[in-house]
Specification:
Elements lengths: L5 H6 L5 H29 L4 H36 L6 H26 L4 H31 L10 H30 L9 H31 L7 H23 L3 H22 L19 H22 L13 H28 L9 H21 L4 H24 L7 H7 L4 H4 L2
Keywords: Membrane, Transmembrane, Transmembrane helix
């Protein structure tokens, strides 16, 4: 690739694979993840069947973590890591095959699990649920293999050392593989259960979420943030020792919490939660998101007037609340200021941190991958508003599920998030617009645009 222009590099099929991951992840989030979450809230408000709603909520959470966030992370990594190390990109055919299998598995999951819990086409739904777990494991393993191949290639010698980044990526991918294996066992149990058909056992469901967030997504997010935040958001240089400590605490905390949940060992789980809470706070401090921003000689604007910088900052604000929620579990039940709710924890991490971080960092990364700029730079203010409205609404439902107002705020959260992701997809040019829509937004009629 030596001597090639950025446009030529971006046009290579192996380096354009990120777009397919982004489209698949956003489609799953909008059409399956947030839509199913909104439906689950509305059914609960209407007093619908609890077993069906629980299955839908489980499928919603799984698709959001391993579909939306997982595919966005893997897609960016397939493009970002080879460039960072100065090596050739992964095999595009292997990536396409892995993405197709993984996407098919996730699509089957969001359809089959609620159908099985609702007693509709029971045998077919049970079979489809097991197939979904199998497809996810096979497809995800192919993607991990493709990414691992780029790590095995010798990097360019003049590149900066990437030990912390590589370690975070390797541990994240290992947690991802472990989660997909547990997921297959969970879907098998849900398909075979006669007492609660379609429901993945609570210990397996909790372990899956913990591995997805703390083992896979957060370490990679911290490591990538250490490389991109100073460039995108003018943060101070990251603190390497504190960052390494954060990644170590997340890894050890996940190793303790996931088995502690699976085998119902209270001290193991509590120790893991304490380490995870400390790891989150250490990661935030290492990235210096809340510290004064670096001034730039040619750009005297305040970083606090940048909507994307504010998105990243608010994401880490929600993450800090998740850390406090974890550490609050060490206190006596009546002494804790934060409710001991897994639903609250998962949505602080998923809606509050991961989604807002994707909106902030993706608005910089994705247009750059294709050698373009944001379609509407000022639309980032709308992303900031819609994203945080969605988080606040969903957390209101988690904090007070019995309150009617909180229920309706929770129902509004889904459409707000869907609107934010659709705007994000258009603004970053991940998806295009047809001629009539494009000209209408530009203030011209389709006919005059062709004159």
């Amino acid at each position: 690739m030596a001597g090639a222009s950025s446009t030529e590099i971006a046009s290579k099929p192996a380096l354009r694979i990120w777009r397919a991951f982004a489209v698949a992840g956003l489609a799953l989030a909008i059409l399956a993840g947030f839509a199913s979450g909104t439906l689950a809230v509305l059914v609960r408000l209407a007093g619908g069947p609890s077993l069906w709603t629980a299955a839908l909520a489980q499928a919603h959470g799984h698709v959001q973590i391993y579909g939306f966030a997982g595919l966005m992370t893997l897609g960016v990594a397939q493009h970002f890591v080879p460039r960072l190390r100065g090596v050739s990109p992964p095999d595009a055919r292997l990536c396409w095959l892995g993405l197709s299998l993984l996407g098919a598995g996730l699509g089957l999951r969001i359809l089959s699990q609620p159908l099985l819990a609702g007693g509709i086409t029971i045998q077919a739904a049970a079979t489809a649920l097991v197939i979904s777990g199998t497809l996810e494991l096979v497809g995800g393993s192919l993607l991990v293999w493709a990414l691992a191949a780029t790590l095995r290639r010798p990097g360019v010698t003049h590149k900066r050392p990437l030990r912390t980044f590589t370690t975070a990526l390797v541990t994240g991918l290992a947690a991802y593989e472990a989660a997909l294996a547990i997921n297959l066992l969970g879907t098998w149990h849900a398909a075979a259960s006669t007492e609660r058909p379609g429901i993945v056992p609570a210990p397996a469901s909790t372990a899956l979420a913990a591995l997805g967030f703390y083992g896979f997504l957060l370490p990679i997010a911290f490591a990538m943030g250490s490389r991109t935040f100073p460039l995108f958001f003018r943060t101070q240089a990251p603190r390497p020792i504190l960052l390494a400590s954060a990644l170590g605490a997340l890894a050890l905390g996940t190793v303790l919490r996931a088995p502690g949940v699976l085998v119902s060992t209270g001290p193991l789980r509590a120790g893991g939660e304490a380490l995870l809470g400390c790891g989150l706070l250490a990661g935030i401090a290492a990235l210096q998101v809340f510290a004064p921003r670096r001034p730039l000689p040619r750009d005297q604007r305040s970083a606090w007037l940048d909507p994307l910088s504010l998105l990243a900052t608010s994401a880490h604000g929600w993450l800090a609340l998740a850390a406090l929620a974890l550490l609050g579990r060490l206190a006596l039940p009546r002494a804790s200021l934060v409710p001991r709710s897994l639903d609250l924890e998962w949505h602080l991490l998923g809606a509050g941190y991961v989604t807002l971080l994707i909106l902030a960092v993706g608005s910089h990364l994705l247009p750059g991958f294709s050698g373009q700029r944001l379609r509407w730079p000022r639309a980032s203010w709308a992303l900031l508003g819609l994203g945080n409205v969605a988080v606040a609404g969903r957390l209101a439902w988690s904090l007070a599920p019995a309150a009617p107002l909180a229920g309706w705020l929770g129902a509004i959260a889904g459409p707000a998030a869907m609107a934010a992701l659709l705007l994000f997809a258009l603004n970053t040019r991940v998806v295009g617009m047809s001629g009539p829509i494009r000209t209408a937004l530009a203030g011209r009629s389709p006919r005059s645009a062709h004159r």
